[in-house]
Every structure is written in structure tokens, then in C-alpha cells.
Design a protein that fits this description.
By secondary structure, this protein is an alpha+beta fold. About 40% of the residues lie in helices and about 15% in strands. The strands form 6 sheets. Strands 13-32-31-30-14-26-29-28-27 form a 9-stranded mixed sheet, sandwiched between helices. Strands 16-15-25-24-23-22-21-20-19 form a 9-stranded antiparallel sheet, with helices on both faces. The protein has a 5-stranded antiparallel sheet with strand order 1-3-12-4-10. Helix 18 (about 610-620) runs antiparallel to helix 19 (about 630-640), helix 27 runs antiparallel to helix 33 (about 965-990) and helix 29 packs antiparallel against helix 34. Keywords: ATP-binding, Magnesium, Membrane, Metal-binding, Nucleotide-binding, Translocase, Transmembrane, Transmembrane helix. It is a multi-pass membrane protein. Its cofactor is Mg(2+).
């Protein structure tokens, strides 16, 4: 199609080649040739030809259409009603409605059931429709795109299928994409097309004539990898993730690009990741299901008792009434009892809480808004408020027993600063005075970088070869991108904050990384511009735990520079480095004591002939489709041997604000905190001490670090006994999981041991193992769990826990997108749990207790009345009162309590974290509390029936007329009921507001207004059959004895409650009672702040690398920043420095060196010899 807005979004299609059956089967061995007559089609996902064959038009290949909405205008009503009637209570009330249309059974009008049922269905349907409309996916114009099509995208367009990039408008065929909808990261990523396809440009004819074949992996959900090959003109070209645009990306800063559709519709990687999310339900929801079944059983029991009573009454007393209540022919007592059973199913239907579900949803929605609106959980630094991403789990926040937390980016800031280093056996970085190092000799230095050890910069100035080699490695061995908008104004884009900190350190000490191309790296070494030929990048991954670069110096020297985890580097060192390794190890232990993240640095010189052979083998492996990754690892392992040690770096990952105080507070609330991290034991242990998870008084430290499943099982068995013996008197321990503890046969022993410990830290844990630990606790401890993290590696853990919390940190937003609640800082977790969670749980429990009380009391009065009306299924109340009781008269007061009530304010909640414990023990609502409510309702119903019955029995009005008619008794009983349940609500509320008061008094006023209106002459004359209680209100409520009866029943109903609570508070008060009394007398002091404890350790900290695949392929393929480099100056003078900045990439989105002004004063430093262990003698270094 020609260019133009009228053709925007249309795909190019030009079928050229007709493939015969024989030729096709040669490409697809085992493929079933389609039957053209019935149009069957079987697609081979492992092979995509550039041109759709002519017969494929007849085979109807899968399109790019997907469906993300549940309904459409035609299916909404039937599907939604079908889903709603799967709820037992709704189906039950529909069944009641059917019974009510049978005249022989029903004694109630149909509207008593229809009105509440329709209201519930309407509110729920409106909510479902709103959610479904929001979830509809945009981009319907792309639905007809098919595999093999070539499409054109323009700037800011949404990528709607998985594409192989063919060409683009940018230099070197680069494109810039935003992947926020895939991983939550808003920083731009770079992709680059193959040169062979990039030369096609935007020539539509060339693109259509291009004939090639792509063989790739089948559809899968791996967003971080893609494997395939392009075959063209007899040559094979490797395809990986950097040459693919995935559905969900957005094209940015790129005028246009062309792509070949590899996967469409549900086969795209984005849709493969959109599996069904587990529906999370609270423990109260699960309990409610059990209670509703119990209620059904109890309802059947009551109806059976009353049906039997009807049978006996008909046999013994029924014949006395046949004169004016003649029986129909054939109606025996048993048949009458059968009809009475179903009649009482209708009469007693209010015992089943249909309106409960709607009220619960309203309460949860309101409590979710409180979280969203909480200004104390708003992080102003990055303009991030707290967000309740679900409205169904609020009360579960008040019952958390286990918190599973990530470390990096969750407890720490994931903002790295270069603090210390060890070079050739000498340690640098100790702060001996307050004077900062003056970097004025380097105009390219970052003014925000702060360092206090002057001896290191003096060693640089003295041209110490080991120190120069150390910083040269940091300037060359990385995948950082550099951009220089103006002369001397450098912007670094780093894969991780660790790399950004190390390159910035090298920059300040005189080794400035300036720019790179696909095959070179330009640096400024102490004022001299030097360009190194970049021959290979051996990239970092989770298995290698190191990265290397192979470069050729301007003098022609071939060198390999390597950095990585100290244990990994040590295994590959030359034997001559053993003494230096021992000294460096001591320094690493010192760094670990301060919780620093470390890397070891090493290098080796390479032989030209050997390297050429190695590079040839590397190219062959990189173009293979089978086992590519394993073969590359073998090649990397081969060349990274006999390295020479240079030293080590130490980077600080600072704790987030308030982490120690939060952990201490949660521990006092009896919440167990487990840290699950991929770091090594030493790093996790030192962070544990820094954040108060571990304390100095923890004398018993248990470590499980077996290297085989059998070793781990043996260690677990041996540790259980000593922990069990000291547990009663010393319940504080530290337990570390290293490996194999989650295998079958060890997991239960691990769980028993871990649950005896106060603090648990699991190290070297993969994302899948994080989820396994959470599932293990959920399954065997039956405890409510919460998982909190900030990275993509925490998503599985967040989804597995009952509650998932995402932190919007430096690792993108994927954890937030998968979470139930999100905020910006770990310290907000204490407010989420101890305030919002506890209040939500308390409010929900109070609501449920009161709701069951008022409904059971309402229903039981019918039960007692049956014994006085011949079991005839006559109602004791007016039909309009039955209809409006839950919808109008008692709805708003209980909602007011459930939305505004609080036993103590937030300050006292922090001051007394023990207030959280009752929620963990299910003390506020349980089966026991439910049966207490039932007994209380039974007592109240007895009072509400028999006191009014006795009060009007043989009683006359002031004028001598009888008041003992049915209508007057019904009015009196329902008025007493409403006053009794309203007063009970007042006793339940701990926190009265103007809204609560208005709801309570307004509901009573509404009752009398509606009553006098419906009992008026006008309503009777309008519709006599619907309003038979003419004049009952004014004739009854003007009698003093009626009001005295109301007062007496109200007092008798609440008297046991008042007595019980008074004695309970006096004799055995709960923590809530004590704190409420204290709150009424005084204001709480501010919560105490615990000082951080620094601890020295003999264990090394974790390596400072991100746990993600590196950007080595990105660098070597030329996907660098498109702005051309400015003319370089050496940059070294004593003039003032230009302002610089650092804009990290990916996980390092928040990296920033410490920003404080420089101090020009330099202390006198004694020149020291750094030649303790001479291992580098080559002047080229």
C-alpha cells in the first residue's frame, strides 16, 4: 500500500512463490498435508516463510485478533446472570421467587423477594460491566494481521504482534522502544535490524521481493529470550531478542520501521504471559462459605420443626377451624405440613444474607479508597502514592502472619555508591577525616561523586601501574552507554546501578569512558584520548556471575578484562596469585562486615593466533540453533582461565529510610519476616543486621549450607533438636537456606526448623524457589502470607502469596503490575498492615457480627410466632417492613460503622503493635463468634416476641378499646426490633462521627416517616391490597404503654451485653480495652527510633551485579546512542568542571552518586609504595 494516512496500519502482502506439496513437506517433515476440501489447517509454529503461500489463503491461518473482554452487548446479560446465580445465595433467592408465585405456598407478596434480589443483581452487573469495559484492548484495526505479513509502524505506534525487525529510519537500522506494558520500565530500549534486511530501507518493492526463511522457537512466554535463524541467499544469520519487537512495546523516537510478523494473537509472548491470574480470596470469604452452608442447614432444620408442628396442629386442632377455614378435598395433615415447610422457607429467607455480599463489596471499596487517599503513604520524591490495586483483600491485611521480602530494591534503595576498593593488596576508602578528595585536576569528573581516601588519588597521580590497570578495567569492562550532548557533559546509561557506580568511579579517578561503537571503546586516560578495539563481550548472566571483554590496545596488545563474583573469579586465577588472593580475601571480609557489595577484578593477555581460532569457533556457535547457550558457555569457560588478580571493588547499597524501624515494629506485632534473596549468605546476613532483622543478642545462629540433598537433610535433622531445646527460653535464631532444602524429603524438615526461628533468611534463591517457599508455608502452616518485592524476579512470589505488594523501585514496574497493593517505600508496609489492615479487619468483623445478629433476631421472631398462629406461615411483621428492613432501615447505620469505625487511632496503633495479634488469631470473627451471635440473637428474639406479646395481651387503650389486634402487635414488634438492633449498633461502635450519627438517627426517622406514610388513608385508598395497615401507626404509637414496652424490650435486649462487657473489661481486659482507656486519657508519645547497628563480619558480601542478562550483544551489534560523538578534548585541566549527569538504564533508573559540593582542601598524604605484590609488569597496562 502507498504511504498516507488512509493506509496507516495496513500490512504489505504480495504472494509470490507457490510451494508444491513435495517442496513444502521437505521444509516441514512430519507435517500433515491439509485437506483443502474441508479447509483443515495445522500451522507449524517453528517455521515462518516470508511469503504466505497461495494455498494458505484457503487454510485460514490464525489472525492477530485477541479477546480481552469477557462480554459483548449480546452476551452480557445472559453470561452475567449465569455467573451471578452461581452464587448460592442468589440462586436460593431465585428459588424463593419461584415458590412465591405458588398461591398454596406463599404468604408473602412477590416484591418482598424481587426488590432485594433485583437490587443485588443490578449493582453487581454494573460493577462487572464497568470492569469489562476498562479491560477492552485497543488496536482493533490490527486484528487481520497474519503470520508472514510485513507491516509498517510509525513513531508512537503500539506494536501489535511479535515482529522481526527488518529496517528502520534511524542510522544503523536502530529503533527505540518503550516496554512499559511488558516490564513496567519507561526508559527506552534499543533494537537493531540485521544489515542484510536493513539495506531494504523503506522501498516497498524491495521488501515484497525479499525472499528468505525464518526458523524459530515455538510460541512461549519467555520475554527475555528469542532463538531463531534467518536463511537468505544460502547464508544463515542468528536471531535473538535484540532483533525482535514484542507485542506490547511502543515505538519511540523512530520515524518508521518495517517488521515481519512472527507470532500473532494469542501466540505472542505478551499473550502467552497473560495466563489466568489466581483468584485470591480472604480467609473471611472462605469462612463465610462454610457459614452459609451451616445457615442453610439450620434453615432446613427450623422449617422441618415448624412443618412437623403444622402436621400435629392440623391433626389435633385443625378440625375445630374447618367451619370458617374449610379444607380442600384430599388435603391431609401431611400434605399441609409439606406446604408449610416451603412456606416457611419463604418466611425465614432473611436468615440467608443476600444483601451481605453487596454490603461487603461497598465496605471493601471504601477501605481501598482510604489506602489510595492516605497522604502518609505518599512518596513525594518520585510522586508515587499508595495504590490498592484490588478491592477484595483489605481485611486480609489485618491477619498477616508471615511476610516474605526481597532484599535488593525492597529493603535497600538499589542506589549504589563506590565506597572502597582493594588494589594489589592495599585497601582504600577508609574515612579518616571529613575532607573530601579534590577532583579538580579532572574536568570530566562527576561533581556529585564523593570519596574521602586521598591516598588512592595520589596513587593515580603517581602513575602506579596496578592502580591504573584497576581503573582501566573499570572503564573498559562494562556495557554502559555514553551520550555527550555538549562538550564534557556526559550521560551514562547503565544496565545496573552497580555498573553505573563503577564506571563513574573510574571516570573521577582519571579513566573516563567517553564513547563506544560496535567495535571500539574510547576512553580518556589521565588526559590522553585512547581508543581500544572491542573484539568480544562475554556477557554476564545468572549462571556465569561474571562478564569479560576482549580488547586490543592502541599498541596492538590483546587483553581480556574480567569482573565478577569473587568466588567465581578465584576459581579461574593463575596459581601465582595465591598470596595476593589471601590478602584480597581479608579486605573482602572487611567490606562484607559493612554490608558492601563486592566484585573481584582480573585480566589476562591473549595470543593472537589462539584468539583468531577461538573467534571463528565463537561465530559458528552463535549461528547455531540447537544448544547455542550451552556451547557459548563452554567457549567462555575455555578462554577465561589463568587470570591475574587486580583487586576488588566495594559498592554500598543503602537501606531505604525507616526499614529498621518497620521491621522492629512488625516483629512486635508477631509478624514473622523472611528475606528471600538471590544474594550470597554474607551479604544477606549483614543486611539483616543493618535492618534489625538480626540482632546482636541472637547468640544462636544456624546455617544450612549443604552441597547435596543428603547433606542438607542431615543438617536439617541435626539442627532441629538444639533449636527445639532452647526455643522456650531463647526464641530468637537465625537460619539460612542455601540450596536443596526445597526438594522432596527435605521441605517439611526445613519448614519445621524455619518456623522455630525468629528470623529466616533464604539465600541464593531463584524466582521459582521464592514462590515455592511461600507455597510451602501456605500449605502446611495454614497462615496468611504477604510477599513484597520490586523486581520481575519477585512476581512469582507476589502472585503465590495471599497478599502481594509491589514497590515501585529501580527495577521497573513489573512487580507493581502483578501486585494487589503498591507503594514506593518499604516503610509504608507498617502503615498498610498495622493501620489500614487492622482497621479493615476490625470493621469487617464488626459488620459481620452485627449483620448476622440483626438478621437472625429478625428471623427468629417469626419462628416463635409460628407457635401462636397454628404454624400457618403467617408473618409477624408488615410486608413492607420485611422488604425495607435490610435495604433502608438498617443498611446505612451498619455501613457507617463499617467505613468509619476505629478502636484506636493510627498513632496508638503504632505505639502498641500488639493490637495486631487478635487478627492473626481470628478472635474478632470465627465460627465461635458466629455461634455467639446466633445465641445472642435467639435471646433477643425471645425478648422481642414475648415482651410485646405479654404487654398487649388482654390490654385496652386509654379509651377502653382493645389493642390486641394483629396489626397493632406487628407494628409494636417491628418497632421494638428496630430500636433494639439500633441500640446494639451503638454499643458496637467505638468511634462516633457526624456521618455515623446522621445515619443512625436518620434511619430511625426514615422508619417512622415511611410507616406513617404507608399506614395512611391515602395509600390504602390508592392500593388497598398492598397497604392494609390503615391507621395502625397513629392508633398504636400514641399510647404510653406501647412506648413503655419499646423501652423495656430495648433495655432487656442490651442488658446482657452491657453486663458481659463490664465484667469482662474489669476482670480480664484485652489489649484493645487497655489501649482505648489510655487513649481517652492521654496523647501517645512519638514512637521510639532504633539506631542502626554496624557489625563486622568474616564473611564476604554478594557480588555487585544485576540478576539479569547483560547488554553485551547490544553493544557489539552497534545499538548505541544515535547522537554522534562531539569532538573530544583531553578534558584534564585545573579549570572548573562542566556539570555532568547520570541517566541509568533498566534497573538503574534511580541511580545517583552522592550529591554534595566538592571541597578544595586536600590533606597531606604520605606517599606509599603499592608494589607489595607485583603481578603486572607490562607497560601497556
Amino acid at each position: 500500500y502507498p504511504e498516507g494516512p488512509q493506509n496507516e496500519g495496513k500490512h504489505l502482502f504480495k504472494p509470490l512463490n507457490v510451494i508444491t506439496q513435495h517442496a513444502f513437506l521437505s521444509y516441514h517433515p512430519g507435517y500433515i498435508w491439509p485437506d483443502f476440501h474441508n479447509m483443515s489447517y495445522k500451522r507449524c509454529p517453528g517455521c515462518v516463510l516470508f511469503h504466505r503461500w497461495l494455498f494458505m489463503a484457503r487454510l485460514c491461518p490464525p489472525t492477530n485478533a485477541i479477546k480481552t473482554s469477557k462480554y459483548n452487548p449480546f452476551t452480557f446479560l445472559p453470561l452475567n446472570l449465569f455467573e451471578q446465580f452461581q452464587r448460592i445465595a442468589n440462586a436460593y433467592f431465585l428459588f424463593l421467587l419461584v415458590l412465591q408465585v405458588i398461591p398454596q405456598i406463599s404468604s408473602l407478596s412477590w416484591f418482598t423477594t424481587v426488590v432485594p434480589l433485583v437490587l443485588v443483581l443490578t449493582v453487581t452487573a454494573a460493577k462487572d460491566a464497568t470492569d469489562d469495559i476498562v479491560s477492552k484492548l485497543r488496536g482493533e484495526k490490527w486484528m487481520n494481521v497474519q503470520v508472514g505479513d510485513i507491516i509498517k509502524l510509525e513513531n508512537n505506534q503500539f506494536v501489535t504482534a511479535d515482529l522481526m525487525l527488518l529496517s528502520s529510519s534511524e542510522p544503523l537500522n536502530l529503533v527505540y522502544i518503550e516496554t512499559a506494558e511488558l516490564d513496567g520500565e519507561t526508559n527506552l530500549k534499543v533494537r537493531q535490524a540485521l544489515t542484510v534486511t536493513g539495506d531494504l530501507g523503506e522501498d516497498v518493492e524491495k521488501l515484497a521481493d525479499f525472499n528468505g526463511e525464518v526458523r524459530c522457537e515455538p510460541p512461549n512466554n519467555r520475554l527475555d529470550r528469542f532463538m531463531g535463524t534467518l536463511t537468505y541467499a544460502g547464508q544463515k544469520y542468528p536471531l535473538d531478542n535484540e532483533k525482535v519487537l514484542l507485542r506490547g512495546c511502543t515505538l519511540r523516537n523512530t520515524q518508521w520501521c518495517f517488521g515481519l510478523v512472527l507470532f500473532g494473537g494469542p501466540e505472542t509472548k505478551l499473550m502467552q504471559n497473560c495466563g489466568k491470574t489466581t483468584f485470591k480470596r480472604t480467609s473471611i470469604d472462605r469462612l463465610m462459605n462454610v457459614l452459609v452452608l451451616c445457615i442453610f442447614g439450620f434453615l432446613a432444620f427450623m422449617c422441618t420443626v415448624l412443618a412437623i408442628g403444622n402436621c400435629f396442629w392440623e391433626l389435633n386442632e385443625g378440625s375445630n377451624f374447618t367451619a370458617f377455614l374449610p379444607r380442600q378435598d384430599g388435603n391431609e395433615a401431611t400434605f399441609s405440613a409439606f406446604l408449610a415447610f416451603w412456606s416457611y422457607v419463604i418466611i425465614l429467607n432473611t436468615v440467608v444474607p443476600i444483601s451481605l455480599y453487596v454490603s461487603v463489596e461497598i465496605i471493601r471499596l471504601g477501605n481501598s479508597f482510604y489506602i489510595d487517599w492516605d497522604g502518609k503513604m505518599y512518596h513525594a520524591a518520585n510522586d508515587t502514592p499508595a495504590e490498592a490495586r484490588t478491592t477484595t483483600l483489605n481485611e486480609e491485611l489485618g491477619q498477616i502472619q508471615y511476610v516474605f521480602s526481597d532484599k535488593t530494591g525492597t529493603l535497600t534503595q538499589n542506589i549504589m555508591t563506590f565506597n572502597k576498593c582493594s588494589v594489589n593488596g592495599k585497601s582504600y576508602g577508609e574515612v579518616t577525616d571529613s575532607y573530601k578528595v579534590d577532583f579538580s585536576f579532572n574536568s570530566l569528573a562527576d561533581p556529585r561523586f564523593v570519596f574521602h581516601d586521598h591516598s588512592l588519588v595520589e596513587a593515580v597521580k603517581l602513575e602506579n601501574p596496578e592502580v591504573h590497570a584497576f581503573f582501566r578495567l573499570l572503564a573498559l569492562c562494562h556495557t554502559v552507554m555514553a551520550e555527550e550532548k555538549r562538550e564534557g557533559e556526559l550521560f551514562y546509561l547503565a544496565q545496573s546501578p552497580d555498573e553505573g557506580a563503577l564506571v563513574t568511579a573510574a571516570r573521577n579517578f582519571g579513566f573516563v569512558f567517553r564513547s563506544r561503537t560496535p567495535d571500539s571503546v574510547s576512553i580518556v586516560e589521565m588526559g590522553r584520548q585512547r581508543s581500544y578495539e572491542l573484539l568480544a563481550i562475554l556477557d554476564f548472566n545468572n549462571v556465569r556471575k561474571r562478564m569479560s571483554v576482549i580488547v586490543r590496545s592502541p599498541e596492538g596488545k590483546l587483553s581480556l578484562y574480567c569482573k565478577g563474583a569473587d568466588t567465581i573469579i578465584y576459581e579461574r586465577l593463575h596459581r601465582s596469585c595465591s598470596k595476593l588472593m589471601d590478602v584480597t580475601t581479608e579486605h573482602l571480609n572487611e567490606f562484607a562486615g559493612e554490608g558492601l557489595r563486592t566484585l573481584a577484578l582480573a585480566y589476562k593477555d591473549l595470543d593472537e593466533e589462539y584468539f583468531n581460532g577461538w573467534k571463528r569457533r565463537h561465530h559458528e556457535v552463535s549461528t547455531s540453533l540447537d544448544g547455542r547457550e550451552g556451547k557459548l558457555d563452554e567457549l567462555y569457560e575455555e578462554i577465561e582461565k589463568d587470570l591475574l588478580l587486580l583487586g576488588a571493588t566495594a559498592v554500598e547499597d543503602k537501606l531505604q529510610d525507616g526499614v529498621p524501624q518497620t521491621i522492629e515494629l512488625l516483629s512486635k506485632a508477631h509478624i514473622k519476616i523472611w528475606v528471600l534473596t538471590g544474594d550470597k549468605q554474607e551479604t544477606a546476613e549483614n543486611i539483616g543486621y543493618s535492618c534489625n532483622l538480626l540482632r546482636e543478642e541472637m547468640n544462636e545462629v544456624f546455617v544450612v549450607s549443604g552441597n547435596s540433598p543428603e547433606d542438607v537433610r542431615q543438617e536439617l535433622r541435626s539442627e532441629v533438636s538444639p533449636i527445639g531445646k532452647c526455643f522456650p527460653s531463647h526464641p530468637i535464631h537465625f537460619f539460612v537456606l542455601i540450596a536443596y532444602a526445597l526438594e522432596r524429603g527435605s521441605e517439611l524438615a526445613f519448614l519445621r526448623l524455619a518456623c522455630l526461628c525468629k528470623a529466616v533468611i533464604c539465600c541464593r534463591v531463584t524466582p521459582l524457589q521464592k514462590a515455592q517457599v511461600v507455597e510451602l508455608v501456605k500449605k502446611h502452616k495454614q497462615a496468611v502470607t504477604l510477599a513484597i518485592g520490586d523486581g520481575a524476579n519477585d512476581v512469582s512470589m507476589i502472585k503465590a502469596a495471599h497478599i502481594g505488594v509491589g514497590i515501585s523501585g529501580q527495577e521497573g514496574m513489573q512487580a507493581v503490575l502483578s501486585s494487589d497493593y503498591s507503594f514506593a517505600q518499604f516503610r509504608f508496609l507498617q502503615r498498610l498492615l498495622l493501620v489500614h489492615g487492622r482497621w479493615s479487619y476490625l470493621r469487617m468483623c464488626k459488620f459481620l457480627r452485627y449483620f448476622f445478629y440483626k438478621n437472625f433476631t429478625f428471623t427468629f421472631v417469626h419462628f416463635w410466632y409460628a407457635f401462636f398462629c397454628g404454624f400457618s406461615a403467617q408473618t409477624v411483621y408488615d410486608e413492607w417492613f420485611i422488604t425495607l428492613y435490610n435495604l433502608v432501615y438498617t443498611a446505612l447505620p451498619v455501613l457507617g460503622m463499617s467505613l468509619f469505625d476505629q478502636d484506636v487511632n493510627d498513632a496508638w496503633s503504632f505505639q502498641h503493635p500488639q493490637l495486631y495479634v487478635p487478627g492473626q488469631l481470628n478472635l474478632y470473627f470465627s465460627k465461635k463468634a458466629f455461634f455467639k451471635c446466633a445465641l445472642h440473637s435467639c435471646y433477643s428474639s425471645l425478648v422481642l416476641f414475648f415482651i410485646p406479646y405479654a404487654a398487649v395481651h388482654d390490654t385496652v387503650r386509654d379509651d377502653g378499646k382493645d389493642v390486641a389486634d394483629y396489626q397493632s402487635f406487628a407494628l409494636l414488634t417491628q418497632t421494638c426490633l428496630l430500636f433494639a438492633v439500633t441500640i446494639q449498633l451503638g454499643f458496637e461502635m467505638s468511634y462516633w462521627t457526624a456521618v455515623n450519627t446522621f445515619f443512625v438517627l436518620g434511619s430511625l426517622a426514615m422508619y417512622f416517616a415511611v410507616t406513617f406514610t404507608m399506614y395512611s388513608d391515602g395509600m390504602f385508598l390508592t392500593l388497598p391490597s398492598a397497604f392494609p395497615f390503615i391507621g395502625t401507626g397513629r392508633n398504636s404509637l400514641n399510647q404510653p404503654n406501647i412506648w413503655l414496652t419499646i423501652l423495656l424490650t430495648s433495655i432487656l435486649c442490651v442488658l446482657p451485653v452491657v453486663t458481659y462487657r463490664f465484667l469482662f473489661i474489669q476482670l480480664c481486659p484485652t489489649i484493645n480495652d487497655k489501649v482505648q482507656v489510655r487513649q481517652a486519657k492521654a496523647t501517645p508519645p512519638p514512637p521510639p527510633r532504633r539506631t542502626r547497628i554496624r557489625r563486622t563480619s568474616s564473611r564476604r558480601s554478594g557480588y555487585a551485579f544485576s540478576h539479569a542478562q547483560g547488554y553485551g550483544d547490544l553493544v557489539t551489534s552497534g545499538r548505541f546512542l544515535r547522537r554522534p560523538a562531539l569532538p573530544r578534548s583531553s578534558g584534564f585541566s585545573h579549570a572548573g568542571r562542566t556539570t555532568t549527569s547520570f541517566s541509568p538504564m533498566g534497573r538503574s533508573a534511580g541511580y545517583s552518586p552522592t550529591g554534595r559540593p566538592q571541597n578544595a582542601k586536600v590533606s597531606d598524604v604520605e606517599v606509599t609504595s603499592l608494589q607489595m605484590y607485583k603481578t603486572i609488569r607490562d607497560p601497556a597496562l
